[in-house]
Amino acid sequence: MVSLTLEGGSTDCLYTEAPPLIEVLSELFDRYWAVAARLSDAVTPSAPGPVSAGAGGGARRPTEEERQLLALFAAGVKDDAIARQFGISTRTLRRRIQNLYAELGTTNRFGAGVAAARRNWL
Q1: Which of 10, 24, 39, 102 could cysteine-pair with 5, CB 3.0–4.6 Å?
Q2: Residue extents of the structural domains in the chain
Q3: What is the assigned CATH class of domain 40-118?
Q4: Alpha-carbon span 65 to 32, nearest angstrom
Q5: Is 9 helix (H, G, I), strand (E, B) or coil?
Q6: Which distant-in-sequence residues (6+ apart) come within 8 Å of 52 by Cβ?
Q7: pTM above 0.85?
Q8: Cα–Cα distance between 70 and 62 in angstroms, integer?
Q9: Which pLDDT score is estimated for 98?
């Protein structure tokens, strides 16, 4: 089964049992897999840039956990998986996410990414 669109909300797909098509799709997957970035690379923080004041008031640098959260948000990782990676409950993670949103003056992951970029946290 293969998605027919690149949009995340689409349910259009193609189902095939044709060996030549399956072989081509498998080869395509293997090639992308070979050059894919590891998830652990996505959470390795880069050197922090200059800090600017944002919605939270005073200028400060993000914590290691905040940098990791933002990187995992960007990678599209779900809350349950992030909580497991941090070794905490999903409820605790969501409380920490809400604290990050409050610090950044936003209410969602996209807004957090925009606000973090404006503060040079990314």
Answers
A1: 10
A2: 2-36, 40-118
A3: mainly alpha
A4: 29
A5: coil
A6: 59, 118, 119, 120
A7: no
A8: 10
A9: 95
93 CB contacts (<8 Å, ≥6 apart)?
79, 82, 83, 86
Residues 6+ apart with CB under 8 A from 104: 54, 55, 56, 111, 112, 115, 116, 119
Q: Which amino acid is present at 16? A: T
Task: Give the other-Cβ count within 10 Å of 70's Cβ.
Answer: 23
Please give the backbone phi and psi of residue 54, each rounded to the nearest 5 degrees, phi first. Answer: -130, -155
Helix 64-74 with 109-118: angle, nearest 10 deg: 120
User: Is 60 in contact with 99 (CB distance < 8 Å)?
Assistant: no
pLDDT tens per residue across span 16-66: 898 988 888 888 888 877 776 665 555 544 444 444 444 444 578 999 999
